[in-house]
Design a protein that fits this description.
The chain has two domains: 74 residues; 70 residues, Chitinase A, domain 3 (Roll). Helix content is 49%, strand content 23%. The chain is built from three helices and six strands, in the order ααββββαββ. Helix 1 runs antiparallel to helix 2. The longest helix has 36 residues. It is elongated.
Length: 148
């Protein structure tokens, strides 16, 4: 159940980002059309160039978010294993982690869960570890107490 809640939390985060990006894309399109109706000149060209750059940057953010969503979807039915893998919930003596994508922290049943990427520094340390093993991160030694 906890994994499902964390998965949905991450999915909602990504979908909200996509909605926000789409809204911004429409605003930029409208601004570009408005800019096209203005008179020609250096100021006009600079404005169009700035809007175009912003559109390209937004396009990259959309692509990254869509890639993260594609990485997340297979984790919907993650099976618990003895070793930490992508899709696992890892409980340690200091912190709890959901190894999936970088997303805001979730508090569930008075426990805090950090949603992290397997490619993050802490994610790389946790991958492949078993219950009882320790990791050292930011001068804090944590022991893995559970893997879901």
């Amino acid at each position: 159940m906890l994994k499902r809640i964390l998965f949905e939390h991450c999915t909602t985060h990504l979908n909200n980002n996509l909605l926000s990006f789409e809204k911004r894309r429409l605003e930029l399109l409208e601004a570009l059309e408005s800019e096209s109706k203005n008179s020609a000149g250096d100021k006009h060209e600079t404005g169009r160039a700035m809007l175009q750059l912003e559109r390209e940057k937004l396009g990259e953010q959309i692509k990254k978010t869509e890639r993260n969503l594609q990485l997340l979807l297979p984790l919907q039915n993650h099976i618990t294993t003895e070793k930490v893998s992508v899709g696992a919930v890892v409980k340690t003596t200091h912190f709890n982690y959901y190894i999936a994508i970088s997303s805001p922290t979730l508090i569930e049943e008075q426990e805090e869960y950090y949603c992290i990427s397997a490619l993050s520094p802490i994610g790389k340390l946790l991958l492949g570890k078993k219950v009882g093993e320790t990791i050292l991160f930011n001068n804090i030694t944590s022991t893995i107490t559970g893997i879901l």
